[in-house]
Amino acid sequence: MHSITPITPITPITPITPITPITSHDTPSASRPAKGGRLAQSAVTASGSKDSATPHWHIGEQALDLGEIFRPEVTLAVMQRRIDAALKMAVKAQSSGAYPLRMRWRGPINDLREALERYLPAPDAGAALIEDIYVLGEAIGELFDVQDIGMRLEMTQSAMCPRFHVDRIPVRLVTTYEGPGTQWLPEQAADRLALGHGVAGHRDICRDPEQIRELRPGSLALLKGECWPGNEGHGLIHRSPVVPTGSRLMLSMDPG
User: How far, in Å, CA of 128 to CA of 203, rounded?
Assistant: First the structure.
């Protein structure tokens, strides 16, 4: 995997579809990362204990809000947006295609559009979806200074990862085009000793089910994992949601 080197300032993501502003919520006040800040410097600052009472997420409406992921204390950075009619139609067309949409791909960002045109069940009706995903791939390349990405685009009728967990990677972008969004836990609502196989006497990862948060459909979220320098033991705890009816189309991208 390529090393992750942040580039600041961040080039705004230009969505192919109009984005309707959504009032942000649960957003801790925060200044932008300083110019020239490096991931290694964040790792030095992040070493040591973190206060579970301090908000570790940032939610906004602009592309620049995703850059908050470079702050040592932030493990979730979200840009809220809504899916417009053209994109909804392109997504719906894939659910009625010739075969189920389960695409896993890794390669140069420049080849992403061609790969989507080749693997989508209904590519002729999926132009808006293809363009949106390609723009997100370019943004990931710009943000983390990488040429390649790993991508998963999957439509499912059930939760892919129903148990709360952390990712053993540096960072991942997720978004949901259809169905409920990814669920995550604030630090104060989680018992990390129950992760994985768990420690004796620690069975429930979620201490308080009422504090389970869910990303809104269409929102772009960067989830910091255990392998982000200086973030070991603090990866964002999250899971796939239950899909009560219909289907869920989820996209994830890993830089490098």
Answer: 44
CA dist 35 → 8, 31, 142 (Å): 6, 12, 15
Evaluate the CA torsion angle 146, 88, 178, 189 in order and state its sign. Answer: positive
Whole-number mean pLDDT of the chain? Answer: 81
User: Residue 85 has which token pair?
Assistant: 């009619």
How many other C-beta atoms are found inside a 10 Å radius of the C-beta of residue 234? 22
Tell me, what's the pLDDT at 29?
A: 33
Do 128 and 16 form a contact (C-beta atoms < 8 A)? yes
Q: Which residues contact 21 (CB under 8 A, 6 or more apart)?
A: 61
pTM given for the model: 0.79
pLDDT digit string (tens) for 154-210?
998 765 667 899 999 999 999 999 999 999 999 999 888 888 776 666 678 888 999
Least Cα distance to 177 among 89, 255, 62, 103 occurs for 89
Concatenate the DSSP letters of all residues of 214-229 into one string.
Answer: EPPTT-EEEEE-TTST
